[in-house]
Amino acid sequence: MTTSTTNAAEFVEFFEAGWKFGAHDADGFFRHFGPRMHPNTALIQPIAPPARGPRALQQIFEPLFKAIPDLVGDLKRWGETADGVFIELTLHGHLGSKPVEWTVVDRIILEDGMIRERRSYFDPTPLLKAIALRPRASLPLLLSVFRTKG
C-alpha cells in the first residue's frame, strides 16, 4: 500500500493532536487513537512485550501513563514512507516528581488510514535510569514489562 503526501500529513496532524492529550487526559488519548487502530494492530517497542489487537493501545500506554501522569509528546519531525510515516517525538513528564525525557522515532504502517503497526525506536537509557532511581513511582510500568499473555 502506498500513502499520499496529503494522507501522510493528515495522519501526522492527527498523531500530534493525540499526543497533546497525553497522560493528563488518558481517556481522551484512547478515544482519539482508538478509532484509528487496526483490529489486528501490533505495537512494538523496546522494554515492553509487543501488544496486539484491540487492547494493544491500553496495554502499552495505561501503565506508562500511571507511572508518568503528565506525559506528553512533542512532534519534532516526520517523513513519509511507501506504507506510512516515520515520526520523531520527544516524550516528557515527571516520574515520582522528577523530570524524565526521551526521544522516540515511531515507524507507523498505515492500512486504509488505520495504524496497522507501530514500531517505536528509542534509547531506553533515560527511562531506565529514571525507573532505577524511582522504583516505587515506576511500579505500574515495571509490572507491565513482565505481563504475560492471558
Commentary on this structure:
By secondary structure, this protein is α+β, with helices and mostly antiparallel strands. It has a single domain, classed as Nuclear Transport Factor 2, Chain: A, CATH 3.10.450.50. The chain has helices at 5-21, 26-33, 56-67, 125-133, 139-145; strands spanning 37-44, 51-52, 72-80, 84-95, 98-111, 114-122. Strands 2-1-6-5-4-3 form a six-stranded mixed beta sheet. A hairpin with a 6-residue loop joins β1 and β2. α1 packs antiparallel against α2 and α3 runs antiparallel to α5. The protein is globular and about 45 Å long. 29% of the residues are buried. The model has no long low-confidence stretch (mean pLDDT 91).
H-E order? HHEEHEEEEHH
Please give the CATH architecture. Answer: Roll
Class computed from helices, strands and strand pairing: alpha+beta
Please report the number of helical segments: 5
The largest sheet is: 6 strands, mixed
Class, according to the CATH hierarchy? Answer: Alpha Beta
Tell me the β content.
Answer: 35-45%
Descriptors for this entry?
150 residues; alpha+beta; 5 helices; 35% helix; globular
Helix and strand layout, with pairings?
Elements: H1 5-21, H2 26-33, E1 37-44, E2 51-52, H3 56-67, E3 72-80, E4 84-95, E5 98-111, E6 114-122, H4 125-133, H5 139-145
Helix pairs in contact: 1-2, 3-5
Briefly say what this structure is.
The protein has 150 residues and is an alpha+beta fold.
